[in-house]
Specification:
There is one protein chain. The chain has 14 helices and 17 strands. It is an alpha/beta fold. The protein folds into 2 domains: 133 residues, Aspartate Aminotransferase, domain 1, CATH 3.90.1150.10; 256 residues, Type I PLP-dependent aspartate aminotransferase-like (Major domain) (Aspartate Aminotransferase, domain 2), CATH 3.40.640.10. Helix 5 links the parallel strand 5 and strand 6. The protein is globular and about 75 Å long. Bound molecules: 4'-deoxy-4'-aminopyridoxal-5'-phosphate. 4'-deoxy-4'-aminopyridoxal-5'-phosphate binds next to helix 4.
């Protein structure tokens, strides 16, 4: 078991007071707080390692390159990839999905070909594909969900056709917390030789993810949601796919040779990393992943499941409160509404009590429409959250309900 008090001591921001009240930070689905080791690593990089990577002969450039490339191997180990060539650094989940949608459609899709996504995707796994509808002429097909917020797996094969080129699905819903049956989706897709992209933005920080066991073709996540710095993300792709895809952006770092007549591209993963990479971000992300590995992702999952179960039970004891997303297969996120209290008012009033939650459509407007709501209040948990904080949230909601 983990010692939450020890973990909380690693996160300086958690001792803040907000509006004169101790901060209760329950907006981890949006971004997580950073442990001191990550903050220290950023400082260390700028104080004693900083130099541009890959092309310098001097000491510092070598040191920065070593740190950056070692970080790639840390990411590789964390998600169980076969090779560090399969790890591409991006600015985040959004950029990683844009990279794949753009390169994949350019190489493999003709007008009328189809890409399947689910009804509970974040906008960043919808809009890049819609851009490709305009650019490449592809068509989006939507895998429906049940009222409980679970993917209707039996609908998948009905949607697959000879035109289906790729399936892109979230691993965990940022609104409902549902853990999708990703292995089954991948197994089905592969029976038809269709590759699968997994949006792991809300899963890698909560549950064990092993890309080889999962057998996904692409997997993407953001550093800032897994205790790492902002502006950094990861695209994992099987080498056999990444090899076939054309570059996404052009510039330095991603070339082998350049002339005005013909340019050739670098090998993996550099072909997809145009320009100076964020070597400070990558090393700080690696530090975050090592921090998590020290605690143990299984221990984190167990702790968060406990907090989630307690929060679900306590919230349901409030009159007229409805939870959206009632799958038994859930992690870390609770979306809810209280009859007669607008989600925005709830968020603002909770804030006056020092409680940070998210309100609104959570970048998932089509899902809101499917649920028949305009928005929800979302509490999302991380390794440092406690049952005592859940009590503060529940008491806060009870006080607000009385005001209305
Ligand atoms: N997918 C999911 C499921 C998410 O929760 C998010 C962030 N809320 C994203 C994609 C986009 O991540 P980012 O903004 O870090 O690129």
């Amino acid at each position: 078991m983990i010692n939450v008090n020890d973990i909380r001591a690693d996160f300086p921001i958690l001792s803040l007071q907000v509006h004169g009240k101790p901060l209760v930070y329950l907006d981890n689905g949006a971004t997580t707080q950073k442990p001191l080791c990550v903050i220290d690593k950023i400082r260390e990089m700028y104080c004693s390692v900083n130099a541009n990577v890959h092309r310098g002969v001097h000491f510092l450039s070598q040191a920065a390159t070593d740190e950056h490339e070692a970080s790639r191997r840390t990411v590789q180990e964390f998600i169980g990839a076969a090779s560090s060539n399969e790890i591409v650094f991006t600015r985040g989940t959004t950029e990683a999905i844009n990279l794949i949608s753009s390169s994949f459609c350019r190489e493999f899709c003709k007008p009328g070909d189809e890409v399947i996504i689910s009804a509970m995707e974040h906008h960043s796994n919808i809009v890049p594909w819609q851009l490709q509808e305009a650019i490449s002429g592809i068509k989006l097909r939507i895998l429906p969900i049940s009222d409980e917020g679970e993917i209707l797996l039996e609908e998948l094969e009905k949607l697959i056709s000879s035109r289906t080129k790729l399936i892109a699905v979230t691993h965990v819903s940022n609104v409902l917390g549902t853990i999708t049956p990703i292995e089954k989706i991948i197994e089905t897709a592969h029976r038809y030789d269709i590759p699968v992209l997994v949006d792991a933005a809300q899963s890698v920080q909560h549950i064990p993810v092993d890309v080889q066991r999962m057998d996904c073709d692409f997997l993407v996540f953001s550093s800032h949601k897994i205790y790492g710095p902002t502006g950094m993300g990861v695209l994992y792709g099987k080498e056999k796919w990444l090899d076939k895809l054309p570059p996404y952006q052009g510039g330095g770092e991603m070339i082998a040779t350049v002339s005005f007549e013909k340019t050739t591209f670098a090998g993996l993963p550099f072909k997809f990393e145009a320009g100076t990479p964020d070597y400070v971000g990558s090393t700080a992300l690696a530090t975050a992943l090592k921090y998590i590995s020290r605690i143990g992702i299984e221990n984190i999952a167990k702790h968060e499941q406990g907090v989630l179960a307690y929060a679900t039970e306590q919230l349901l004891s409030i009159d007229k409160l409805k939870i959206y997303g009632t799958s038994k297969n859930k992690c870390s996120v609770i979306s809810f509404l209280v009859d007669g209290v607008h989600h925005y008012d709830m968020g603002v009033l909770l804030d006056t009590m020092g409680i940070a939650v998210r309100t609104g459509h959570h970048c998932a407007e089509p899902l809101m429409r499917r649920l028949g709501v305009e928005g929800t209040v979302r509490a999302s948990f991380a390794v440092y959250n406690t049952r005592e904080e859940v009590d503060v949230l529940v008491n806060g909601i009870r006080r607000i309900v009385k005001m209305f």
